[in-house]
Design a protein that fits this description.
- The chain has a domain of 75 residues: 2-Layer Sandwich (Ribosomal Protein L30, Chain: A), CATH 3.30.1390.
- Helix content is 39%, strand content 20%.
- Strands 2-1-3 form a 3-stranded antiparallel beta sheet.
- The chain is elongated, with a radius of gyration of 22 Å.
Length: 110
């Protein structure tokens, strides 16, 4: 009986790493008739790190188009930003809504 020297060894996951980018989500603010424009700009500064001109542009998109894209993030970050916007709006008595939408792979939005 001999010992097999060249026995097939299964590859481990570490031998052949395959990383993929996580799915991305766009976070959007939705228009309402009660939240002041200045509050929306403040939200965009505080939670989305937008400059004054960019925050104003997004706020105007929300006002005129019904929604404005605040940023594109992995799921957990998008979810936490959405939660923070909701909590801050509620705390100040405003109905500002924030949503997130998955960006499908291959559509060129990322």
């Amino acid at each position: 009986m001999g010992i097999l020297i060249h026995e097939a060894v299964p590859q481990s996951v570490a031998d052949n790493p395959q990383t993929r980018k996580p799915p991305m989500y766009q976070v959007m603010l939705l228009n309402d008739d009660f939240t002041p424009m200045a509050f929306v700009v403040d939200i965009l500064h505080q939670y989305f790190q937008k400059s004054e001109p960019e925050a104003t542009r997004i706020m105007l998109a929300v006002h005129h188009e019904g929604r404005g894209i605040c940023g594109i993030y992995p799921f957990e970050i998008a979810e936490s930003k959405m939660y923070l916007v909701g909590q801050t709006s509620k705390k100040h008595g405003y109905p500002l809504k924030c949503t997130m939408e998955k960006i499908e792979a291959g559509n060129g939005s990322c």
